[in-house]
Amino acid sequence: MKLKPISVCVLLLSVLFSSWLYAAVELNEKAPQTYTVKKGDTLWDISGMYLSQPWRWPELWDVNPQIDNPHLIYPGDELYLVWVDGQPRLRMKRGRNVKLTPNMRVSPLDLAIPIIPLDQIGAFLRRHRIMDLGEINSSAYVVAGAQGHLISAPGDRVFGRGPFPDGERAYGIFRGGDVYRDPITNEVLGYQAKDIGSAQLLSSNEDEVVELEVTRVTEEVRVTDRLLPNEDKVLDATFHPRAPEDEIVDGFMIAVDGGVSQIGAWDIVVLNRGEREGLEVGHVLAIYQSGQVVHDQIQGDNVALPDVRAGLALVFEVFEKASYAIVLKTNRPLKVMDKVKNP
Question: Any bridge partners for residue 300, and if so which?
């Protein structure tokens, strides 16, 4: 399955003035007066050059009526700062001959710079899922390998048993991985579905036992591995980075992709908060580290220092009880169990 996010590039600039605008945006001290957009830039990179709170980019944008569609930015475009009624505004001078019409929609959208590195997120979503125990237990599974052999390479055959939806021919091979628990309540939030490979259905979906050909492997396939239909995910282009409407309480980064000990920019993390706590795709969260406990030499007791802000994360996939987020910015090494709060 190949993701084709043909419109994943655009709408960070399409919200002209958010309803939560209460104060003027704060420019960075070294914000450039002009900037020429380069290939490989993202809207988040550019907004971070200009703003101390990059998700407030729409408040800085000022529509240039000479541009057919000012909500798309391309390599070669020139951005420049102006002041309107004492407030900073960013305008754009088209640096290339792009005219957006209904008949030319796909190509220009593919050329526009994305909000964040969407290719990295797309690859992650193809490999990872968070599922509840009922979903896992009710899914199809590998019952045997061809001639009793273990499966180790593309081209090998495997037999599957269980529900195979009509019309579905491509399946992911998954194995139950980590159990995600809330660090405060110990509630099970979901189970990691670990990517093992891919397979193509060869026989009829109606057979009790079906035959599949393995097309991709990340490690040896085992009997009892689960077979799940590939999800045709297209990354949502309708979001713009924004702060959550509700207060996020007791939020933590509870796992990181790859099992590394330290977390840096562009790493993908699991959060212990999801749809039921009001999280949505596009929500920006501040990352905090717990303050140190120090000894107060005057009072003679120990006191905890305030939590220290250490970075920013953007939620890009939301489940009922947990979420995936990408770390956008750090000013110190992060780790699992660092807190996430409203920015």
Answer: none
Q: Domain 251-341 belongs to what topology?
A: Thrombin, subunit H (2.40.10)
pLDDT score at 154: 87
Distances (CA, A) of 88 to 25, 43, 62, 83, 298: 8, 18, 9, 5, 47
Query: Which pTM does this prediction carry?
Result: 0.72
Q: What angle do CA 142, 4, 282 make, to 5 degrees?
A: 95
* CA–CA separation, 59 and 19 (whole Å): 10
Q: Does 100 score more than 70 pLDDT?
A: no
For 43, residues 6+ apart whose C-beta sits below 8 A from its C-beta are 12, 13, 57, 73, 113, 114, 115, 116
Extents of the domains making up the chain: 1-115, 130-229, 251-341
| Interatomic CA distance for residues 195 and 152, integer angstroms | 14
Sign for the CA dihedral angle at 154, 159, 161, 163 comes to positive
User: Residues 163, 166, 170, CA angle at the centre, nearest 5°?
Assistant: 80
pLDDT band at 117 (very low <50, low <70, confident <90, very high): low
Residues 6+ apart with CB under 8 A from 94: 66, 67, 77
113 has a pLDDT exceeding 80? no
